[in-house]
# Entry
Amino acid sequence: MRNVGARVLVKRSDMRTTWESEIWVRRRGEDLLGDGPIDVLTADGRYLGSYPGDTAMPTAFGPGGLLAFVERDEVGLNRVVEKRVVGL
# Structure
């Protein structure tokens, strides 16, 4: 990723770090109010890849690629869903 001198403002809820020190950051969407893709970077700024804009930002990260999401079920209760990233 190269620095082109532009400043980007990111809300804290749009950036997370994993146990492996990867940085997940959501870009703004095309309309500036919507969600854009999630970019994944190493701690030293190397770009690893992106997830599409309709991908949910994980609530928490665990070891070995484990992701946790809080989702609302059909009766309105929150539940934790775990998923694992196999590779980016």
Remarks:
- The first strand starts at residue 15 and ends at 17.
- Residues 14 and 43 are 16 Å apart (CA to CA).
- The radius of gyration is 14 Å.
